[in-house]
Amino acid sequence: MTQSGSPSRGAGRGSRRAVPVGHAVMRSANLSLLLRHLHTRGGRSRATLAQETGLSKAAVTSLVGDLAERGLVQEGELERRGTVGRPGTEVRIAPHHVAGIGVELNVDYLAVCLLDLSGEVRFSTQVPTPYELDDGAPEGRAYPPALLLDGVAEQLRVSLAAAEREGLWVSGITVAPPGPIDYEGSSVRLASNLGWADVPLGEELAARLGPDHPELALENDAKLSALAEAPRLARRGITDLVYLTGDIGVGAGIIAGGRLVRGWSGFSGEVGHIGLDPAGERCRCGRRGCWETMVGFGTVLAVLDEDDPARSGRLPMAERLARIRTLLDAEDPRLQQRFTSLVDDLVRGVGVLVDVLNPQAIVLGGYFGHFADLLVGPVQSALDARLLAADGRVEVSGSVLGLDAAAAGGAAVALERVLEDPLLAPVLPA
Amino acid sequence: MTQSGSPSRGAGRGSRRAVPVGHAVMRSANLSLLLRHLHTRGGRSRATLAQETGLSKAAVTSLVGDLAERGLVQEGELERRGTVGRPGTEVRIAPHHVAGIGVELNVDYLAVCLLDLSGEVRFSTQVPTPYELDDGAPEGRAYPPALLLDGVAEQLRVSLAAAEREGLWVSGITVAPPGPIDYEGSSVRLASNLGWADVPLGEELAARLGPDHPELALENDAKLSALAEAPRLARRGITDLVYLTGDIGVGAGIIAGGRLVRGWSGFSGEVGHIGLDPAGERCRCGRRGCWETMVGFGTVLAVLDEDDPARSGRLPMAERLARIRTLLDAEDPRLQQRFTSLVDDLVRGVGVLVDVLNPQAIVLGGYFGHFADLLVGPVQSALDARLLAADGRVEVSGSVLGLDAAAAGGAAVALERVLEDPLLAPVLPA
To answer: Class of B23-93 per CATH?
Structure first.
């Protein structure tokens, strides 16, 4: 059991490369370089790989052989680029041998995602949580951890069985628990919506999965969602972004210079309680004017009728959101009003994040993302209007992964282990 | 002319090591590894170096030879550790050959710092700027760039002459201008306190220094100050910190996971205008409740008598601060009141930075640092009281470098060039 190991927290300044470079390290680094290159850029010939990476053709051939032996790459189609010379055979990521698993453990549902190295979702499931809280009275009631953990372990077993059926070696499992993580102890510390405190989630899951389970790691949902959205933006050269989760609580996943900003104890992005108005509404936390009191999902639910089904925690989130969409389409005036002021309230907090972090992109996730059509345009305009300098402009978009973002990000983080060290993957039987 | 190249903005996730590792790169990386190791940990024998870095003794001997040839390391005293074997000769950073220069260009003064590789300040100067603005009417008046640039170039020539006199090769010059930087164009964009816009500071200085000047780079003062304070904290394992500059404006330098967070266009840490109170005071920027209106140096000056000398921009900053200290010591009630509420106002913004970034340390710089004895304790207590989890605790301290922080940080950044690539240093004449 380790904390999520990737992307790394970054070696300190002055010790960026803390290991000496010997021949074994050199080979491993070059295997990783080639595998990442193919993973990011897609299939290409050995000659193109040599040209683009600066490695010799002989080295590329030998390294590709190693990667193929472990089922990480395979031969593909002929590559035809330009007209000179004979076409090379394309080398590409092998989709059928290595995968990672991500799990999001939520108040409403469990989402599991099995992602192969080529980026394809090979299996996924969203199941309601196995125990229902009484509506409206979640406070003070503990959600029995054992019951929920049994449910998670069951879904993980189903996913691992799916992987085995498809001949996939699983490089790791990343779990996003519904609250702050004690990274040292791999426990969930305060999942206030579940009434949990100090549940040793990592150990408990490991015990349930038995001795031969893949490496388990915990990571925060907003951080995993940010990592899941990052590649889409990185393809356009964007390496500084903030992902906002919109639920009852609000959180941020921060990527700066291509690296996840975790904070020293893993608690970066706890933006729900930043104080933006000393005269504002009283928050659950006891303070006034927390951002959550302005933009949390509760502010939308609060304008609905007492008995509106969207208020019920028994319904899957997707159904609740669909119900709210129906009301908006029917021009419910209270909801329309709420979404209009939601734009201003979002901009107040996003403005702070922009000033502190200078990101190039803001991605709206959770319920914000679901209503991206109503929020992205006005939020973008308001941010543009408050700009001090044109090249500080930030681009606002809705999450493309929706409610699966954290699970997909977890699977991608699990795959990072093998991208960083391809020698982890077992050699295929001859 | 380049933008400040160090610490790097971080290669993207998925391309952490974008260059292949061949033998030349391997040697250069290992030279850097050894030099950084000695720079961070201090002198030690070749045997200890081999043990600690994992390099072979033969490799260490050969690499140390290369470093010595370029005047980067030298033989020192005998090392006596344990009792077995004969004592080795210590290798240590050579103080007398390589240095970096940092310049802070301020409204009130120019500070220049010449720092050698061993971390010793070999020459420094603080001179008043050569042109005086009328008190109280800085807006709308442009501070003539040419005049100020002549002054900077003059001080740089003095520093370069000092370096030459002492036989120091200068690895680079980093300049902190008094406003946002256009990193692409190396110009100062909006130095509102000087009335500047789009002054091509880099080019202008380069032209004044002539063809053979060391590499010039620009970097923001808060970022440089953060880098200057970072090693002190890194020695205690702290790699996540926020440095706050307190002046008329307020800025933050952010280091996360040991790396400077620059933001995509270099504008991270522009925290003076984060909006913390919709009903707050109107700010120069036109919005209400900006943090600067609550904690900027102007809020202290505002409680002084109209003709108090501390209000005069003609006086050096150190004298103005000393004057305020005298008034505080005399228990001036308005100032005492101001510093009491300053604590609350500081905590509001620092609380936001803590929630967003989860730093382990907050360093108070500028005038905040000068009055650290009055601010650190109460700010620490208030932050402790709002903690959600014990291991998210942040440590507050005053800057130890005071008004020289940015210049010292600039010199350290210039030295990073040679720590990253020791082969930049010229081979010493035999």
So the answer is: mainly alpha
Highest mean pLDDT among A21-25, A172-176, A248-252, B286-290: A172-176
Q: What does the domain layout of chain B look like in residue ranges?
A: 23-93, 98-223+406-424, 235-399
CATH fold of the domain at A20-93: Arc Repressor Mutant, subunit A (1.10.10)
Residue B351 corresponds to which amino acid?
G
Q: Scanning every residue of chain A, which has its alpha carbon at the shortest distance from the alpha carbon of B11?
A: A258
Query: In CATH terms, are B23-93 and B235-399 the same topology?
Result: no
Interatomic CA distance for residues B14 and B10, integer angstroms:
11
Instruction: Determine the CATH number of domain B235-399.
Output: 3.30.420.40
Q: Does A276 touch chain B (CB under 8 A)?
A: yes
B263:A287 CB<8 A: no
Query: Which of the four pLDDT bands, split at 50, 70 and 90, describes residue B388?
Result: low
Interface confidence (ipTM) of the complex: 0.83
Rounded Cα distance between B118 and A303, Å, is: 64
Contact predicate A217/A5, CB 8 Å: yes
Contacts of B276 in chain A (CB under 8 A): 275-276, 278
Are the beta carbons of A133 and A310 closer than 8 angstroms?
Answer: no
Instruction: Retrieve residue B372's tokens.
Output: 């650290």
Please report the DSSP string for A136-168 in residue order. T--TTPPP-HHHHHHHHHHHHHHHHHHHHHTTP
Q: How many CB pairs under 8 A join A and B?
A: 253
* CATH number, span A237-399: 3.30.420.40
CA distance B198 to chain A (A): 11
DSSP single-letter state for residue A375: H
CATH class held by domain B98-223+406-424: alpha beta
Residue listed under structure tokens 């009301």: A327
* B17 and B406 Cβ atoms separated by less than 8 Å: no
Alpha carbon distances (Å) from B174 to A265, B146, B406: 32, 19, 10
